[in-house]
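Tutorial, part two.
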Amino acid sequence: MDGFLSVWQRIIQRPDIPDDEKALIGPLDKFTKYGRIPCKLIFNLLIVTFLTAEVIFFVPIDNKYHNDSVLALADKFTPEGQSSFEPELKYHFYDTQEITNFLLESFDAWDSLTQDPTALFIHPTGSSGERLMPFVRTVMKVNGTFKDLIINSKVGFDTYTFDCILTRDNKLGPFNGTEEVSFDKNRDKKDLHVFADRIQAPSPVKASRLSKAEVRRKRSRIKNDSNKNANNDIVAPRRRFRSKPKASTYFSNDEVPLHADPKCDGVSDIFDKIKSFTVRYPVSSIRINGPTNEPSKRRWDLAAEYDMSTRTGVIEYELKYTPGILGRIVPSSRIMGSSYLALSLVVIILSSWDLILRLKALRGDILRKKREKLLRSTKNAGNLARARSSEKQELAEKGGGNGAESPILQLNDEDLLTLGDDIASSTSSATELDEAKAYGVEQEVAEGAGLDVNFSGSKIQWLLIAIISDVLILISKTLTLVVCTTTSDVSSGTLTANTTLSGFAVLGAYIVIISHLEHQPRFYLLIKTLKRGTPRAFKFVVGSFPILMGYALLGTVLFGGYSEKFATLDGAFVTLFALMNGDIIDDTFQSIFFESNVVLQIVSRIYLYTYIALFIYAILNILLAIMEDAYFQVKRQIIQGLHEAEG
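Running the prediction step on this input gives:
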């Protein structure tokens, strides 16, 4: 107990260290020489230990559940034979019949999710308890079909969007060709909105609020509207909603179905009009092996996107998913007792203490830097005052005079302080090295041992990095507590933010460890090499980038039409970067070799030969030589400095 109290007293009192040694000795030297416990180092190591434990024991569980869920959903909502351990969520259709068959299979797969005995997938419900149904959001041409462009090139490309809810009776929605209902091809956008309003069935008539006469008049108006629709070749849907369904919070505002149910005159005709359509399947699941060891409810907003805008006979299909959490379904007392949240609370406490210590140290270093500047200013003013006294004494020994020819004799005390401050503010790097000698450190030893002469500036930079790391840890762990304990729904954006912040928090905590090695030259070699070599390497990369950009643009223009590796500018950069590192060289040669065009065959070979020769044999090797030169310079200085320090 006495030993613990003595350690605690040391932590509280924090023995003072002379300013001329604070920047020269490390945390362990401070402890052995002055008995000052390295609290920041201890907190940093504890934070790193707990964060590492979390990544090792809890994160893989989340990753496995996510990957397995995506694999299961991809198996149900991608064409047969496309799912694998890494599910391919993209596919190409070439036939409209193939699409309609797949739409039927996808609806049946969604409808039978709850019948799978190996999974806990469920159908989410709305606010009133009804099951949320899939719906199709379709983008179609306003006037005519895309084939009309063959006859008249002036046909407009104006489109409109409508939603159609899928049911067991109508699994295809607008692609159900059995309904003899057609759109008037000659109506304009205004008529479209009128039609959309008409297919929204009116609210039920409440006799308790209306008289019998009002009820008869209202029913008569509804009947007249239906007759008008028939006369205009616009037939209202057979199936009507008794009341407009309430918008569910399961989808975001821009994803809530419009509850319209328009139909078209046959499958082939509607596919001639469609630009794209998306089928959204609401899916939820129960997770039983979460990090808190308590069940939780997850949601998967599936969006099957079909893109027909290219009109090349290829329909691009992509299954996208947006994960989320539907709030806890067990008492908070059971969740708060889990080891996962206990670990997060411990990390929050440690990060808070470490943040306080870092802010306190940052404040002290800033004040110390100002004090050093003031000392330099006072020192310069004192030197000027002594020079003025010497001038006066020499003038008196020579027999007097007014001293008008000496500028220093014209300065009063206030002018001396101002001039000294100006000299301190404009201190050059050479003067700073002289100041380092005043602290008892020789210039050669300081540089050779890997120490920064501008000690305060280097330490402030590391303190800022540590503060940012602590802030990231606090935000990410607070979000973790909120996600695990809230009763409200957690959006995909919140989960993504939490994951991203947690990852960078772990990285920042490990980078901060390097700051404690600053006074150990052999362990600090990487940072010194980067500080010396990165500026020169960056200038070289900037000078070489126009060549890389030119090759990327050239490859996109020449080979993007038949090679997926150069189809986009981003893909071209990825391919060229992989080539620079010696990857996919043979695959790229084969990919851009166009057998039916001799000119492109020759150009493709010249393109890759010159790029590989220039970037691998020249540019990449020069870049490595720059960093090697910086490494050997730093290493030579460290060895020389250590020898001088020992001698």
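Confidence is low (pLDDT under 50) at residues 178-210, 226-265, 427-455. In part three we will examine how such features are distributed along the chain.
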